[in-house]
Each structure stands twice: as C-alpha cells, then as structure tokens.
Amino acid sequence: MTTSQGELLPGTRRALLHRIAVAQAEGRAPSLVAAVVRGGRTVWHGARTLVGGHAPDENVQYRIGSITKTFTAVLVLRLRDEGLLDLGDPLEKYLSGTGAGEATVAELLAHTSGLAAESPAPWWERTSGELRPEIADVLGEQPFLHPVGRHFHYSNPGYTLLGALVEKLRGAPWEEVLRREVLVPLSLDRTSVRPEAPHAGGWAVHPWADVMLPEPSEDLGRMAPAGQLWSTTADLARFAVFLANGDGRVLSAETVREMHLPAAPAGMTDLADGASYGLGLQVQHRDGRLLVGHSGSLPGFLANLTIGVADDVAAVVLANCTSGPQLSVVGADLVRIVAEAEPRIPEPWRPMREADSSSLELAGQWYWGTNGFALRLTADGFASLEPLSGAGRRSRFRANGDGTWTGLEGYFHGELLKAVRRPDGSVDHLDLGSFVFTRQPYDEASSVPGGVDPEGWRGIG
After folding, report:
1. Cβ-based neighbour number of residue 97 at 10 Å
2. pTM of the predicted model, to two decimals?
3. Is the dihedral of CA 111, 323, 227, 330 positive or negative?
4. Residues 6+ apart with CB under 8 A from 114
5. Residue 148: exposed, middle, or buried by beta-carbon count in 10 A (0-12, 13-18, 19+)?
6. CA 297, CA 318: separation in Å to the nearest integer?
7. Per the omega criterion (within 30 degrees of 0), is the bond before 122 cis?
8. Segment 305-326, tens digit of pLDDT
9. Distance (Å, whole) CA 386 – CA 106
C-alpha cells in the first residue's frame, strides 16, 4: 500500500497529477496510473481514466512488457554472484546447441550479442507462444544480424536465451525460479506471469479517430523472459527501491550498481539522445540527470520504471494502450518534478571514525606534470582524485588494505594507485597506472621519469 500522500507538498502533488493528466488526455490512454518513490517509500500515487467512478488504484495489474527483462537480468546476476557462471563466458559453455552460443552472457544482457531484435514471423507479440515451442523456433535460421559484441542491437530473443540459461542452471522453469528468488523475497505479491484480477484490459486507440479496439493478450511461451509479466504500480515501486539500493536476499547493493553501468557501446543516435544500456537496465542522461530503469510495451499496454539514483526518486507509469503517451518522458518528468520541487536533504556531515596516518599524508594537492589535482579522503572510506580546474579525469578509489587503492570509475576505473616511498619512509610520489603525481609540478625532489631539466623553471626575456 502507498504511504501518506502528505509526505509531499501540496504543490508537488498537484504538479504530479497535472503531468499524468496531460499525458492521459493528450496520449488518449484509456487509463494511466503512476507512483513516485522517495527515500525507499511510495509517497504518491495517481490515476486518470476514461471510466467514471473508481479509478485504477496501486493494486490493479497492467502488463509491463520488457520491464520483464530486468527481472530476468536479476536472476542471471544471482547465478554469477553464486559462482555458477561468468559473464564473460560464451553461452555455449552452459547452454549448448542453441546456434547462438558464441555470444557471451554479458553480451546477451547488454544487447550486444548481434542477435535479431525479433523472432521470425508470425508476429510473436500477437500470436501464441505455442507456435515457438523450441529455442530454434525463437531464433530462426539466421539468428545473427551483426558481429557479436560490436553493436548495441536490442534483442528479445537474446533474453529468451537468458531465461533458458536460468532454467538450465537452476533445474526449474523460469517462472518458478523468478517467484522463489525475486518475487517472494521482495514481497511482489501482485506480479505474475498471467493476469490476476483486478487487472486492466489492453486497448488499441485509432490514430485518426477517437475510437478503440481491444487487443489480444497472448502467453509468450519461450519468449516469456523477454516480456511476459503483469504487475502494479505498488509492486514496481518496491522493485524500484530494490534496483536503487539492492537487497541482500536477492542482490547486493554492489551488484545492483553494476547493473546501472553502461555495458553497451552507444550508436550515434543513442549517443545524441544520451541513452545507453547496462546489464538489464536502460541508462539515460536527461535534463542533467542520470536515470536508470526500463520501458515496456506489448499490444494494449505501455510501462515505464525510471530511477533518479542521485536524487533518490523513482517513478512508475503504466497505461493500457498500444501507443500514445510517451511514458519514458512522463517517468523522467515525474522524477524531475519531485527532485526540483523538494530537493533531497543530504545527511549531516560526519568525520571519519579513525584517521589512518599513512593514508592521511596522501591527502592534499598533487600534480600530474603541470595539471593540478586534489586527493581527498572521505568518511565513507574512499579517496577521490579530482582536477583542480574542475574538468578532466577524476575517480573515486577504494582502499585495498595494503596501502594501495583501486579506481572505481572513469578513466582510472580498475587502475592501481600507490604511494612510492623513499628509503626514509617519506612519500616520493604517487604512481597511478605508471603516471607519476608529485607535490609540486615536476618536483625536483621526486623521481620523475625522463628527469627534470637542471636549470629549472624559467621565463623568456
């Protein structure tokens, strides 16, 4: 159930309601429901519908289409975290005879496997999964359209393969594994592979006339791991909290953060749109805000889940129409409305519990050649290295416990930072992937590769 709507200011609630009302009216959706999550709890729910009286509430099911892929990705990453597979291994190592086994598990997750976007005819979203009983029926005679690992090309059959991989390694149907390992632990009681009352009916709205046509609702069979699920705004709000913070019963916070990282090379159009794809999550840079989540669509339904991680705000939007409202835009707008109207209040600053002297002496100003950097130690145990100019290479570093640090992001991701000491124990310089950082620009007292001109710095008369 949703928490008190009083947690948001009246002006914020009105702005949220106005946004979904415009989306439902201009998008000509039979109904549209939405929820907003902040601080790990649902703080707002809204609905608009053409039906008078009782509007859909947070427990009415809608089909969520490709948001199902994120659930499947969670199952695969659980297998990785348990040591049952490696993301860099080819699928053939674990699931043989598919005809697409050269693609790695990671490439399937990130849609860089080179597989086709859709299953061969007939149109799989509008026909029974019984027409495709085997993986070969899903992939067709020529499953690859692109070189493996070279391009981002969204693939529904790719997630069919991931579902089959889950079934092979767990020895149980995908549906059963999903319920046991994700739905039950996260209390997603209204998320299911088949509709459970109360649920919305799917509609097509004529593009040039205000009339509607009911859409068929097919069981996708083998394609289920790519788009089968039905869910509610209440359940997807809880799922959004998990995707933002992790849950030890399902996936750790570290693994969830890994899902957020772009894992696919962006094409020119995607690059211009600020869009990329992680491990089962869409990644987008919009209005200066980094958003992760997923959209979904099947005949009669549209769905979107958007998380502004830095703002600690998430939005879920569902509609029962084949096309019309741009739910990814609506979701991003709901996050923006809350983040801008009621900015996140940061936690109080607190100092470190303990100050390690060998680490503390590294803090301060350093120079990579003539480029100034600041190294800061923070209370969370990390170190950050940032250019003094505000622009350039930067990263946070995790202490390894042996006096070295490993880069966590950007250019220095995975690179080793260590202090090189003189015989007397004092720090001569920092070595970061062989780059030398000194206390002064080209410090004469430090070991600088190539040496420092003995005449030192000079002007030109």
Report:
1. 8
2. 0.91
3. positive
4. 103, 107, 144, 145, 146, 147, 148, 149, 150, 151, 153
5. middle
6. 10
7. yes
8. 999 999 999 999 999 999 999 9
9. 31
